[in-house]
Every structure is written in structure tokens, then in C-alpha cells.
Amino acid sequence: MSARRPGRRARGGSRGRVRLVYRSLQSAQDYLEREDFGTAFAHYLLLLNLAPELKDIIRESFQHTLFKWAEELDSLSRIQDIFDCYEQALELYPNNEVIWNSMGEHLFSMGFRDEAAGYFHKAVKLNPDCADARENFYRVANWLVERWHFLMLNDKKRNVAYQRAIRKAVQSGCTSVLDIGTGTGILSMFAREAGASHVYACELSKTMYELACEVVASNQMAGEIKILHMKSLDMEVPKDLSSRVSLVVTETVDAGLFGEGIVESLIHAWQHLLLPPRPAGQEGPTEGFGRVIPLHAVVFGMVVECQEIRRHHRVCFNEVGGLRLNEAVMWYSPVSNESCIDDAAEPYTTERLRQVPGGYTPLTDHFQAMTIDFNNPQELEELTTRNPCRLCLPVVKEGVLDAIVAWFVLQLDEDTSLSTGPDEETCWEQAVYPVQGVLGQTVKPGNTLVVDVSCKNSYLVFHSIAVLSHEHNMEIEVNTMSNHLASEAELCDALANLQTTSEPRTTLLHCMLESSEIARLNNTQYNDHFKSALSSILFSLTSVDGGIYCSQTIDDRSSNMNCENTNCQSSSDLTSDVLCVLDVSEGFSILPLIAAKLGPVKVFSSLEKVQQQAALNALAESNEISKDVLEFWHNYLEDDSTLLQRPQAGKLWSVIILDAIEMCGLIRQGLVEKAALARCLLRPEGRLLPQCIKIYGMLIESETLQQESAVQGKEATLGFNIAPFINQFKVPVHVFLHLSTLPHVQLSEPVELLKLDLMSVVTDDLCNEIRVQVYSSGRITAVPFWYEIYLDTEISLNTWSDTSHWKQAAFVLDNPVQVNAGDELVLQIHYHKSNISMIVNHG
Ligand code: 44T
């Protein structure tokens, strides 16, 4: 027996090692028991380096130690150390999905969302059954692969148009092709299919680049398309392309055409990556010249009245929930062309006008705002420096000036075009430029609107709107044009410089709010219901106490509860039994002031932004709420974990306001934990607002939702195999839906799916099974859901109502269920850590 087994040799050869291994294990366990996680972790690392064969046996304890130690490091803000520990752990356990997921959670909580997304994705790939990782992945999948990819790939008309234009160009001699912003690689595959000899593709998103590689390989084109993970602006010849190409294809356009940087990309491509353009007017062969698909674009616009846009971008009411809003503060939305206010502000938002709740009314005809020739390098270069183009638009219908809306027609070549217009059957949204300066202005036929349009910082911008009425026209003609009759253009020139802003801004405090925050301020029902609920709680608490705080007793709800808060309340009054209200809403909330208006209370806001705190203070002052009544809870605190604490040693909260539902239609993360914590901090008769949430849903068939959720087979992608790859990124729950305008067929009545009683719920894991009667035949493809938020037993808010600032969400089924009228279905609802999932079966 000359050959010894290696294992025996190792063991036999080093008794010291065995002892060391044993001692390390012993120490690691001892330190773990003593909750000295840092030292325990170090011993585990040593142990695993000495004896990797123990990996499986000690996995659980190692994981536990790692997580505990990371938690501790987190509380000490030792960020780099956390990452180092995870790196070491993943070196030892590269296939451990729990560690990948946990690392993702740390990254996520620190705001590194894209990085977190990568970790969650990896965890799900390692173990698709890991529920925590899957839910985390679903939450971030939208950042890795935006949902419009699904829509665009399902848009057969768009795919056919590009395929046709590319085939024609390649067959006419453009045989070397660069696809800028390839996404899943579809345009490159069209080029290769058409016979191009050299096809290059670039993509700046890592996830999309990896997807494109998978897609192209599965379509047997791996060796034929060279995909680069880079921005086109960083590409060079011959480093990245062997020589200049004869065709660039691209669809790097957003709703506002320029937002994906197409102008810069093409200026660069013409300078460095493309053959020279064919001189204008030259006929004959195209060989030796470069060209771009799309050929050119025409931007269109119209001016609209649209209540949905208005309520998201302007504070529409002077008084809300008993508070005057517009006296001390000038609110503005982040979507603003007034770059003087905030450079970071974006000039437009997007909306699918066809489906905007409440619809819209055009106040002008469609107008042509701009044309762009992508095949004229010089024009592209001049575009960004060109003077704004002034447009005079006759008003054709009376209405409120809410927004300018823009879209475009992309001319791919001489024969083929795509339109993103609001009347088109298209998946595209339109760019929306809310009008801010001329507040609530009504215009009518006879008026002329003056609008400047330009391309600024790679955005299409509309600005300096002026409204000319007939009377003004006369005035201007007299004042500035003396004797000759002005042409329309001259008139507009003279008038566009007219100051049209009515408020002298300098005297007001400026405060920027997110559009969802503006919509919440405008949600009168929300504010009024909170006011009533607060009033009733404070009244009942006062009755219990018999008015032992301060000098005033709230003895009559209707009159005294609404009295001005005139009693002095210095901070020292807190030592008495004054009622304390804490609002931990996300974002800007006026609920503390609504509470303060109701009677002698002390209110705490959890606002953090200095500008918003100043705005709330200014609102308090202009509403005669004493300075001492309002406090900012964050100013007391070192970190968020102590947010829900007692107001003072020995004191408890009378009311804690929680923000249960996110604007997108989901239950806020951590709600149950937060509610449990909040309950511990309430005084005996104190209350949480809301008390209870009921989740409602119904069965529907919706083709639109299907299109948005996954690529449906190979047909739309013209035979190319793309669906299985991109569909790895599909998510079951869709958010930000406008249920009232989503095209769908309703197959059942709304039913209550689940109830979360915040005054008692203790677990983050709930199940419910309900039976639902189908009243119409069809295919169940989704279950939209929304909420009834109970502030008390009588007062509730529905998140699916016309004035709601909330949108709705929907669970989209993997496999549609065919049903007939009268069928009874069983709906299983799972609630796990604020996430909802469902299973639909025949009863
Ligand atoms: N959105 C449409 C934009 N890229 C469409 O990383 C329409 C939005 C939309 N790569 C609703 C409906 C719709 N070099 O993957 C992206 C992006 C990449 C580049 C390399 C560059 N210079 C760029 C610039 C962009 O190109 C891909 C497509 S961009 C936008 C497409 C359905 N909401």
C-alpha cells in the first residue's frame, strides 16, 4: 500500500492543524454566544480558511454571525467594513443566495439601488425559490430593465418599420452597421438578417448589454454581431470599430425626443464613427457615404387643459383642511422650464394622454414645433446653439392653460415613419410641459399664445409663454408699432418680452414639492378626512382626560375643536399632559398643522428637508399657529432608527400618523413593524392613523397590462428569440396604474382581499383565501388592487377615487385563467413584508 489517500495525509500530517481548527471553532462559537459578533466573525473566517471542508456544516452560524456583525457595523456607519465582510463571505460562499441578498439589502438601504439590484438578481438566479430575494428583486427590476422595453418589443408595427428601413438601407449598399443603444439587440439582428457584413452594437447599461449578448447568441448570431458595453460617445476607430461604418441605426429617443442624448451621439458619430454624409442633392450610388436611420424627425405640440396635469403641478386650492396655503409660500413643481429657479429641474414629464384620467382638451391646433435632420451633421451641431424659435398659436377653444404637450414623427427613411402622437395607437407617452407662470389662466378663442421652442442641455424645451388678447394687441400696435400694421411675427416678438407673471415672487418663500406631494396637497378629501379624524380623536382624548392640560378644555367638538390655537404653549408645558401628535408621513405633509389648528396640542413633523421645514414654519405662521406648537422631530434625533420615540421621558404619543400606502399603489415597506413600534409608544387611549387598511381587488382581462408585463412570444419580435431572456426581468406586480383609464374588461365585482388592522397586526406574513364569483366570460389576466384606508371606524379614504393622489397596482398572472360567467374562483392572497402575491384557481 504505497499510495495514501490525500485526505489521510492531510489529517495525519498535521495534528496541529486539527487542534487549531478545533480551537477556532470553539472560539468562534464562544464569541458568538457572548454576542461579540466581530470577533466571532474573524474566528469563523480563520476557521474556514483552515478547514474549507467545514463550510456546509457551519454555514448557518457563519451567516448569522455575518448578518449580526454587519448590523452592528451599519449602526456604527462603518460602511466600507460591511462591504469588506460581505466580500470575504462571498469568496467563501460564492453560491449562497442568502448572502448575496443580504448584501443587496445593505446596498439598497444606503441608496445604492442599481448595485443592490445586481445582488438581488444574482440571488434569484442562484435560487429562484428564495422568497426574500425574489421580492427584493421585483422591487428593483424596473431599474435594471425599464418597463418600456416590453412595450417596444411587443410593438410589432415599430419592429416591422425598423426592419423594413434597415433592410432597404443594407440592400442599397450600407453593409457596415453600428446600432447605438442596442437594448436587446433587435435592430442589430435586423441588420445582420438583411445581409450586413459588419454589425456592431453598443449599449451603456450593463444589464441590457448582458441581455443583448444572450439574445444574439441564442439567435445564432454571436460571431456576427460585435456587442460593446459602452457609450457610443466613447467609441473610437479602429479601437472599437475596425473602420468607419456606412450606417448608424438608433432609437435612442425618449418621449421628448432628445432626452436620451441622440443629438450628441449623432454629432459624435458623424465626426468619428460614420463615413461622410452624401452631399445634398447628389444622386446615384450611395457607396462610400454614411447615413443614419432615422432620417429625420418632426416635433409637434399642442396646448391643453388637463386637470390631471394641473393637480400634480400646481397647488390649486387656497385653503386646505382649514389651512391657508398660498399666502406665505410659493410652491413649484420639479418639472419646470423656469431654470432660474432650479437648474436640476427637468423640463418635462410624460403622460399617455390617451389614458390620462379625466381626459384633456386641446386649446390650440397641433402645431409643428421643430424639424431635425439626423443626416445633416452641420444642422445637428447648430441645433444646440440655435436661437429659440418663436411660435404664435391661436387659441381655438376656451379653457385653462395647463400644459404644452409634445410628440414626434420619426421618419426612418423616405417611406417609413413612426408617430408617438396622442391620437396614435402607440405605446409611446407624450412629453408634458406643465405651464407654471401664468397660474390658472383661462384663455379663449381670439387669444394668441406665444411660445419659444429650443433644444437646450439636450432637452427639447418650451418656454416664455405669453398670452395676447385682442385688447393687448391694440395696445401694442399703438405703443410699439406706431403707424404700420405689425405682422403676426413682429407682434409676437414685441409681446413675448412682456412680463406675464402676476405674483412678485421675491416676497414669498419658495418651496419645491414632488408632483405626488402637490397632488396630496390638492387632495381635499384626504386633508378634510384627516382633519375630521384628528378632531374626533383629540376630542375623545380630551374628554377622557377632562382637560387637565393647559388652560383650555376641548368640550365641544364642532366649535371648540376648530378654534384658533391661541393659548400659549411653551416647551415647558410638555411636562403637563398636553396631547402630542407625531406625523411620520413620507414627504411633505401638512397634517401636523391641521392637527395644530384643532386645539391645544403639540405637533411633531418628521420633515427633514430644510426648505420644506421652512415652508411648514411659514405656513404655521401665516395660519396663526404658535411657533412653539410645531417641532421637527428629526432635529432632535441622531438617526432614523429612533424616529418613533417618546416625545419626552415618561410621555407617550396621543396620535401617530403613519403613511401606509405609497403613491405608486403599494403598501409601504416596513409598515407592520412601524405600526407595532408605534403602538408601543401610544398612550393608553392614543391612536394610530390609519387604524386599519382593507385591500380590495377584482378580476380583469387586460391586454395592455399583458403587453407591459412580458414579451409575448416570437411573433411581435418578427421571429427572433428575445422573450425568454428579457422576461427574466418581468415582475408580477405593476404599479402607477390609472385603473379608471386602463383598457380592460372587468370580470368580477370588487372584493375585499385582506385586512390589515394596524392597531393589532403583529406578523408580516398573512394569508387569505376568498371565493369570487365571475360575472362575465373571458380570460383573467390580472387582479388590480387598491385600498380603503380607515382613519377611524367611520372615516376612510379610498385610493381609487377621482381626487386620489394614489395610483393603483395590479398583480399580473403568469398564466391567464379562462372563465365563464357564473364560475366561482378561489383567490389565495399572500402578504409578505408589504408585498402582495396571488394565486387564482377554479373553485
Ligand atoms: N423610452 C420610451 C425610451 N443608450 C426608448 O441604455 C415607448 C418610455 C418609452 N447606449 C413609455 C413608453 C416608451 N450609447 O438601453 C437604452 C440605453 C441605450 C445608449 C450607448 C449611447 N449614447 C446611448 C444612449 C442610450 O439605448 C437604449 C435605448 S434608449 C431609449 C429608448 C415605448 N415610456
Summarize the structure.
The chain has 843 residues and is an alpha/beta fold.
3D structure, described in words:
There is one protein chain. This protein is α/β, with parallel strands linked by helices. It is 33% helix and 24% strand. The chain contains 24 helices and 37 strands. The strands form 10 sheets. Strands 6, 10, 11, 12, 15, 16 and 17 form a 7-stranded antiparallel β-sheet that branches. Strand 33 and strand 34 form a beta hairpin. Helix 5 (79-92) runs antiparallel to helix 6, helix 7 (113-126) crosses helix 8 and helix 10 (156-171) packs across helix 11. The longest helix is centred in the middle third of the chain and has 22 residues, at 524-545. It is globular. The chain starts with 5 loop residues before the first helix and ends with a strand. Bound molecules: ligand 44T. Residues 148, 151-152, 180-181, 183, 202-205, 208, 231-233, 251-252, 254-255, 260-261, 265, 427-429 line the site of ligand 44T.
Low-confidence stretches: 1-12, 474-506, 546-575
Helix content: 25-40%
Kindly provide the radius of gyration, computed on alpha-carbon positions and rounded to a whole number of angstroms. 31 Å
How far do the termini sit from each other?
Answer: 69 Å
Strand content: 15-25%
With helices defined by DSSP (H or I, 4 residues minimum), what is the helix count? Answer: 24
Label the overall shape: globular
Small molecules (ligands, ions, cofactors) in the structure: ligand 44T
Category from helices, strands and their pairing? alpha/beta
Number of strands: 37
Average pLDDT confidence is: 87
Sheet with the most strands? Answer: 7 strands, antiparallel
